[in-house]
Amino acid sequence: MDRVFALSFALFVLGGISARVVKVSSGPLIRVEGQPVSIRCDVSEYGGPREQDFEWMMSQDSSSGGSRTKIISTFDASYSHPSLSKRVASGDISVVRLHDNEVELKVAEVRTVDAGFYWCQTPSTDSEISGNYEEKVQLIVIPNTLRVSPQAPTPSVPEGSDFTLSCNVTRELTQPTYLSVTWSVKRGTSSEDILVFGPQGEVVVGSKFARRYADGGIRLVPGRNGVFELVVTRVTTSDDGIYECNGTEWTQEDGGRWVKIVESKKEMGTVTVTPTGQSLRVVLSSTSPQLLTPGNTLTLLCSVSADNLPALALEVAWLADGRDIITMERGGVVISNSSSSSSSGGGGAQGRRGEASLERTGAGEYRLGVRGVSREDGGAYTCRVRAFLEKGGRSSGGGGRWHMAAEKTSNVMMAKVATIKPSFSLSLDPVLTPQMTADPTELACHVTNITHLPPGSRLAVTWEHTSLPGVGEDPSTSHAIGSLDAHGNLIPAPSYSERMESGALSLSRVQPNTFRLKVLTTQEMDMGQYMCSVAAWTLNSQGEMIQSSELRSSALTIRWDAKRPSLNVVAKHIREASVGGATFEMSCSVAAENLGEAGYSVLIQTQDSLQSSVRTIMTLSPDSVVQHGGATDPNRRDSLVLTKASSAEFRFRLAGVQLSDRGYYWCDITAWTKQQLGQAWTKATSAESNKIRIDFEENGPSFSITIHSDASTVYPWETAMMECSLSVSGSSPKKDDLAYEVRWYFTRLRGGLVTSQVASMDRFGVVRKDTRNSSSEISIERKDTHTYLLNIHGTQDSDSGEYHCMATPWYLSASTGVWTQAAELTSTRVFLTVKFAVWESLKLPLLYGVSASVGVGLFSLVLGLVCAQCCCRNTAHTPRSRNKLMDLEMD
């Protein structure tokens, strides 16, 4: 009995008094028949082992005294009731341990018979009974009454129209559950949600549809009796796909958390959006004669039709010989190009087209009228229609975003005006032809044999260029260089404007009938065929300049034998580095062929071996700007120099070489040219030099490491000490020229081999401690230059395991004067055991028990003697009978 009392007292001292708390999922839990169910249970504030066992029971009565059915246990495989053993064996009912003190009861497919109260019980491991050891939660199982009935949408929808996605989602309300409906679209293997409605009336829109929903392009229309409609307006071809409807039934548990209990997804159907371009038709017709006389009116009619014509906003433009003359924007605003084109000198629309007007005569009907035609109004007329669709919904008030859905051009209608045009001849002659790249070029365009040119007429010229095959752009396409209009204005083409502004290329009129093109520095891209077009401009009856005739010269080919530039780069030693700390210097000389005046950029590159990766150390731009590469140590940039010794020689110097500098070094040089002053550099060619090697040897010190523990076995709350010793041999540096980085590691042998870092001390003496799963304290002490101590104060059972240390030596190189990192060292492992001192824990309680027992016994004996003497003594003397036999019998 005394031993039991002492053992109980010891457990009380070690474990302490705790009030056990068992918790389960908040209830009641409403779930749908046939769906999975998970119920969690955890225990806290308990005594005994960390890993706890759990038992699950079920009853139809919520009282604790009701009949319960055993379901499953974490430690007893035969715990389950015979009625549930098959479901447990099949895995339909299982228990999953989440943590040492937490498990989860899982039912793969819940049944209506599973409804009731579920009890989670934990067997006691505490020294005293305190707290609760079981907890219950109610599970309500309802039948699966969720029904999703979608209505198939229109399979084919014209672009810009609307379609409706109707879905009927219902369920029988037996418990407080809620519904939500989700529309999604599937394209290929991916599916994305469009809109989610519910479960409390909120609307969640997919990220790709948020802007469209805000603009009103997607509208939700809740109906009656479970009917929900999603209206998608102003559809585009991106709306193609397979649409799905997903109905979900939810329940809200304690804390406001929404739990999905069942869902059903049904495919609604495929929607194909017909592009506007497939149905858009543009037809051009004429109500005026094809042969007109000056002063007549030209009338043309453009008819537009499309399947979704009411949803389209049309922009209608009339073109004559490919040039816009008048446009009606989609808002109905008419813009005439006559004034701007008249002043441009390139065939003015005001003179060519007369007075142009455009009006809409009906749905899809647009009429062009040109009054007072002149002899220049003849040509090919077309009607170009651009159809726009509004991305925003109809509720956006017309402020939506527009995009062009299709563009169509009508058939060509020819209009002829009887005229007598001026005539002349053209000849294109070379004045200067280039013999090589960068030579000048000069061409002259002569106008001769001029007839029928009225007084006051003027000539305008346009220069064109066509590239040769293999040089520049597509040789079949002619590109404009620039023009001089009838008023003498210079109009450069966009691709030549920069060269004209800088003076590298010029267009001029040297005589009334002679025009000149001059290129100061001809490039390879300038090779090709050149042509000049001359137009005669005359005054019409209103005193306006109109183009009366135009003639194009024959092509003149400009070409030369273009040799590709090349570089030859040679690297050579200037100073070799044979020992550490010396200076390495090399020069790179460039020899160029077929290259004029150029600038050079230099890359100094290196690699440790011929198979290793290439690193860039320094760069020098053609403008002599020096930059350091990614392979440069910022602390050593003062030791690196890259200079330009001459126009074709560069020098690289590396002072104070180290072992890490050993390897191959070379120059990568690129030649750059400029077409003219002020322009950007253009790459011509590049080349690499031969490789020069830095190779020298330096014998550094060698290191070793050992670990020693003062004791392999300690008792709790004692201090364990481990010593990590390092030694150095070879060319041993001085004491102040040596430092170590020391790290301690611990490997726990229980619960799997897991190694973690305990603490570290860097070479500057800064100590860092890592987070540990123990209440003991650790400290690191540097005993001397080569010895480091790890102390574990107040050891616990969790400190049992293997310990080892790792160290990285750093030493100051005598040759380079730079701190050098040596190879990392790893010690052997020592084992530390923390024993549980049973006798030391129990000897005091046992001693106290024995002393108390002896004290109580002596006290009882003394008390008995006192009572016998004081309370039970008979003072009257009775004479003893002489009959001894009688006396014995009486006694």
Automatic annotation (TrEMBL):
GO cellular component, one term: membrane
Family matches, as InterPro entries: Ig-like_dom, Ig-like_dom_sf, Ig-like_fold, Ig_sub, Ig_V-set, IgSF_V-set/TM_domain, Immunoglobulin_dom
Region Disordered, residue ranges: 336-360
Ig-like domain mapped to chain residues: 33-130, 143-245, 275-385, 422-552, 701-826
Keywords for the protein's UniProt record, in alphabetical order: Disulfide bond, Immunoglobulin domain, Membrane, Receptor, Repeat, Signal, Transmembrane, Transmembrane helix
Annotated signal sequence range: 1-19
Topology in membrane: Single-pass membrane protein
Compartments where found: Membrane
Principal cellular location given in the protein's record: membrane
Entry's transmembrane regions: 846-872
Record keyword Ribonucleoprotein present: no
Protein name: Prostaglandin F2 receptor negative regulator
Source organism: Xyrichtys novacula (Pearly razorfish)
